[in-house]
Amino acid sequence: MKLLRYSLFQYCIMLSCMFSFASCKKEKVNGEKRVKNLSTIDIGLRIPELRDTRNDTIRLVLYPSAMFYFVDAGLTQSENNIKLFKKAIKQRLPVRVMVYEDNQLEVAAVYPATEEDLARFRESSLHNDN
User: Fold this and answer.
1) Phi-psi region at 109: left, alpha or beta (left = phi > 0; alpha = psi -120 to 50)
2) How many CA atoms lie within 13 A of 59 on its CB side?
3) Contact, 95 vs 46, CB < 8 A?
4) Contact between residue 97 and residue 46 where contact means Cβ atoms under 8 Å apart
5) Positions of the chain with pLDDT lower than 50, given as ranges
6) Can you tell me the distance from the alpha carbon of 96 to that of 5, in angstroms, rounded to the nearest whole number?
7) How far apart are CA 112 and CA 28, in angstroms?
């Protein structure tokens, strides 16, 4: 009877260790990025502000809009988008932003502003400061 209790106790400990190791196992990321080819909408010039990062999602605000937008870091083009956002923030310049038509809060593409866009932006910001 004592031997049976001892064996049962060992079995329970071993089983609980196996479950805890299995539940703590992290998925290995294979490093492959996804491609999302959907139709997009140009929302125009926006001034970006990065907010936070959770898992592979980067949240940001694109002024003058007061909504949160996000960039899926698991997409192939997202690395370039994030670089352009950071450059625009550092230089305090707007960027041209495209969002997906089916989810208009997800950033599809980011392009640097043209000289014409920048001239209009500077002109409008000078008038707004007065």
Assistant:
1) beta
2) 8
3) yes
4) yes
5) 25-28
6) 70
7) 35
